[in-house]
Every structure is written in C-alpha cells, then in structure tokens.
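Memo to structure team: turn this sequence into structure tokens by end of day. - J.P.
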Amino acid sequence: MVGVSDKSFIATWLFAVFLGFFGVDRFYLGKVGTGVLKLVTLGGCGIWVLVDIILVLAGAQKDKVGRPLAGYDEYKKTAWIITGVLFLLSAILGAINGPNAANNLVDDVADAPTAEAPEAVETEDAADAPAADADEPAEPEATVQSWADETFGIFTPATQAGTGDNLVALPAGATAGIVTATHDGAANFAISVLDAENGSTGELLVNTIGPYTGTTLFGRGLSEPVTLQITADGSWTLTIAPFSTAPLLAPAGSGDAVFLYDGGTGALTATHDGDGNFVVSEDTGELFEFGLLVNEIGPYSGTVPLSAGPSVVDVKANGGWTLTVG
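Reply from structure team:
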C-alpha cells in the first residue's frame, strides 16, 4: 500500500494558487522537469496553473513517487471554500473595474475645460516676442537599448578568464544580463547561476561537451543571481554585460546568441541544422509575457508568431540557424 507523502497538501495548494505561474508547486513536490517547463511557459499561459489548482483540490495531485499529500482529508473543504471565495472576488473586482474605467474616462472628458478663442495679439507685441531658441536640444529619442537599460538594469561590464572549475562573482547591480563565454577543453563545460546562499537559481546557462563559443542570458531564475559557477577542464573566458550591449536581431548565425528586437508584430521563420536542442524565446519585459517560440531537438524549419518589440530574443542552438521576420 502506498503511504502518505511527507509533502503538505496545504503548502502545495498555496504554492499552486499564488506561485503557480512559476511552477513552485511542482518544484515543491519534487517534479523538477515539469516544474521547469511550467516556469518557462509561465504556467502554460495560465491554463496549466488552473489545471494544477483543480488537481490539488480534487486530491489527484501526488508527489514525485505517487503518494497522496499529507492533510488532504483534513483541510480539503477549507481549501475549496477559500479558493472559491478568491475566484469570486477576482470576478467581482473585474466586473467593477471595467465599468469604473469607462466612467472615469467619461468624467475626465466632461470635466475638461472648454477651449477659449485666443485673444488677438497686437502687431507690436508679436514683433517684440522673443524667437524660439533654435539651439534648445530636443529630448533624446527612445531606443531599444534605452528600453533594455530601463527594464533590466545597467551595470559595469566585466571580463574574466581562467582554467578549470571556478566561481565568478557577478558585477554589482547585475540582476539580469548576458554572458558571452568561450571554452577550449575537451570535456564538460557548464555555467550555472547561484544566489547569495550558494543555492541554484534554477538557471543553467551552458551545458555542453568540448569547445564552446556563445552568448546566453541570466536573470530568469527563482532567486536573485550573485555568482556564476564554472565547470570546465580547459581554459575559458567570460564577459558579463547588460542587455543593452546585445546586438540587434541577426538573420543568421550559429550556436547560442542573444539579440535585441525593435520591430513590430510579425511572423518569425526559423531554421536550424544542428542535431541538439534548438530553443528560441522572446522577453518583452512585461509580467507574464515571456514567449517560448520554438523548442525542438535536431533540424527545424517553421514559422511562429513574434510579439512587437522592444524585446530580447534568446537563441540556444548547437548548429547553424536563420531567423527571418516577415
């Protein structure tokens, strides 16, 4: 007979309701694989979150070895009632806020002062008026680089080189950015991200065998990044820089790369000729708007929807690729 899990029903239910978009409930149950997938898809755009909440409340959610959660029979009724109340409050607030927003707009228009006809200006006054300062500088035009600095932060880039296993501290203020790395060894080369307690943030930037050259990004983990852990058998170099230093989206390349995109909504046609994992994602910086565009193994050719920029486009590949926006 299968025993009761050491994982709490109450904890799983709370994680599913309040942190389900980040897969915390599945990480808690030891289901790391589906937890990572739920994290990168932000709860399957909300659908997966709702499904897991129902599974937990119905008692169908088990731990990683298939055991029922502790405390289900004792607390299931309370959890059902509280969840129902939360969903009801959410629906009521949504219904209230919609009409209020429209009423506020109508009130703002009604309260706007009526435009008055300008008084006639005497000719001699107009002649005496000072001319506009032609040398006054115009406000700088917003760019995808300024958006990246404002959205993800800016810090002083840093470069470090070494041989074999090591730890590299991220620059001060580097909570998100890009890492350009090289490795000339023949065995495993990996870069993982650690937090202040030397625990994993859940980000594995590089994990390959042999020589490597590529650019990856950090800052999507479960905790604030502090240190990069290097696993290597040869010499390596790292350059850590803000997102604003990334180049604009390139039409072709090979290996891992990170780009900035400043175009409009479009269709992204991608190809890949490698035999490993091929992943393309887009981050607009908006909460719950991380887009996993492509996630395949081996050769690929297809067209997927691309959101309007400004955004960051991340490519992970072990072969040559093309990206065409149409």
